Amino acid sequence: MTTTAEPRADLAALTLDPSDTKRLEGLVQVAARLTDPLEQALQTEAFAALAERLPARLREGIESFRDTPPDHGLLVVRGLPVGDIPPTPATYGSNVLGETHPSSLLVALVAHPLGGLIGYEDEKSGALVHDVYPVPTDAAKPLNSGSTLFDFHTENVHHPVRPSHLGLLCLRPDHDRRAATMVASVREAEPLLSADDRELLRTDRYRSRFPLSFTRGLAEDERPVTEPHPVLTDGPADAPGTRVRFNMHNTFGTDPEAQAALERLNRAMHTVHRAVRADRGELLLVDNRIVVHGRSDFTPRYDGDDRWLRRFYPYPGELRADVLVRAGGRVLSKDSYARA
Length: 340
Ligand SMILES: [Fe+2]
Hints:
Layout: E1 14-15, H1 18-31, H2 38-41, H3 45-52, H4 56-67, E2 74-78, H5 102-111, E3 117-120, E4 129-132, E5 150-153, E6 165-172, E7 181-185, H6 186-189, H7 195-200, E8 206-208, E9 232-234, E10 242-244, E11 251-253, H8 256-272, E12 274-276, E13 283-287, E14 291-295, E15 308-314, E16 331-332
Parallel strand pairs: 1-2, 3-16
Antiparallel strand pairs: 2-13, 3-15, 4-15, 5-14, 6-13, 6-15, 7-12, 7-14, 8-11, 9-10
The structure holds fe (ii) ion (FE2).
Residues 153, 155, 293 line the site of fe (ii) ion (FE2).
């Protein structure tokens, strides 16, 4: 799909006041003095105590979003302190900010009420906080480092341990303020589908290729494919409601009927979607179980002033030792797929 419907506009943001912003700056400064690497530090009592001191309106907003997400599955927070930002890098894999930059510590604090950060050994070398900026060699690819339309997808659709939420903190918008994160909720799209499609999408007639971001260096036909899975499922008794799992670039029906239903779902997602153009200090949190997200196209200049987001993956559950890279850590190993 190369065009998008007009987005819905009804979205309230949680806007912090200057005293909240100042309080957050103070918490980040204290967090910077914790000496452990971030992966360990964020599991300490000291870090938990800092997260308890998040400004009340922010903490309550995140907890409410966690416990009773709105049907649109999106929370926008404005007024976050992001620190001094150097020029936007233009080569893949530049890790210019590191774990102790204020924006890294800020997202770790924000993710704490959502269960804390996870990373993946086979994506961005297991980093817990990712840098998202355009790279010339990826311009036309459906990647976070690309700049053409990136259609709707569940984050890490192929992985058995998918982040419950996805966070995107804007350090710098694109020059033209054109780049939009598109978010579409299954809770709003499903009513547009026929009963037959809703049933079909709940069958194991779909598979997903591993995304490009996890398979850098592999040829297209070398990318692994998941076992068959449904696109729609019903949530557990304590969190009822439909959940969604697909990546329009990588998920496919195993027969034409299943594929057609997936394409109708994607069209319904475009009909109900919302588009958010974040500015510096704005955070988008989405519930990765009930929304799919994507990005509009935009025009990078590769001049050091390009769009730059920090991306992170909250996950609320315990992780077993045998799926982790490091004991007691939060990074899933690249051979964890069969065990997770
Ligand atoms: Fe994504």
